[in-house]
Amino acid sequence: MLLLLATLSTTGMAACVKPTLTSSWIHLPPYMHKDPSGGLDPVGFDVTILNHVSNQLNCPIEWRSQPWNRSMHEIEQGKLDVLAPASYNAKRAKFAWYSAPFRAERMRIVVLKATKEQWPLTSLEDMLKQNFRLSFHLGTWYGPEFEKIEKNPNFQRLLYSNTDNQKRLQMLLHNRVDGVLGEVLSLLLDAKKMGAEDKIAVIDYPIHDNEVHFIFSKKTIPEDFIQSFNQVLKTYKGSSDYPTFSYSPSIK
After folding, report:
1. This prediction's pTM
2. pLDDT tens digits, residue range 44-62?
3. What is the set of domains in the chain, with CATH numbers?
4. Which of 227, 245, 140, 131 is nearest to 188 (CA)?
């Protein structure tokens, strides 16, 4: 540890800037979720990566469980130091530093398997034409196409927001919505946990594919710390210890 901190110092990059860094988590398996062994801190791939990199910089993470929108607001206000996973968009870049990307995510719509052929969706405009009722996670970035059509009042009447994947999937199973939009692996894992994996299917149309980042509050974290963070992250990504996940369900 001392050698690492000395190396960072000699290259002109900052190491730890606070005794602890505050972060928050939401239920988003396999990336972050409640510790099944009963621990108070979350577990998951994003959690493992952030804990490892920050600990290498002698900056342990203090975790909170709270809604995503509140966390994003606290990043902007400087009440929270770091947050993940975050897609890049210009609005967030005004108040947050972005780390190098650390994994990819795929935003898809899942529907009831029995109804999949009813929805030959090739764009979000198709959804509007077919009066497709959609559940989404408020505050999540689903890409420029969704951002544009979300402002259409005719589309807004078809949107249902909820921050709990399993509650949104229950809405689908009870035909209260026609589809659920979200990170596809997380949705499929929650469906599997609910015993509903065989009842749903994924629409082929890619709503948004992108890489995600850790973001840091510009009010509490200096920019040169991000250089140090990225250096450690790059080394970690190139090692055999970097998290992987063996469950690879089809998105068809």
Report:
1. 0.87
2. 999 999 999 999 999 999 9
3. 2-103+211-237 (3.40.190.10), 104-208 (3.40.190.10)
4. 245
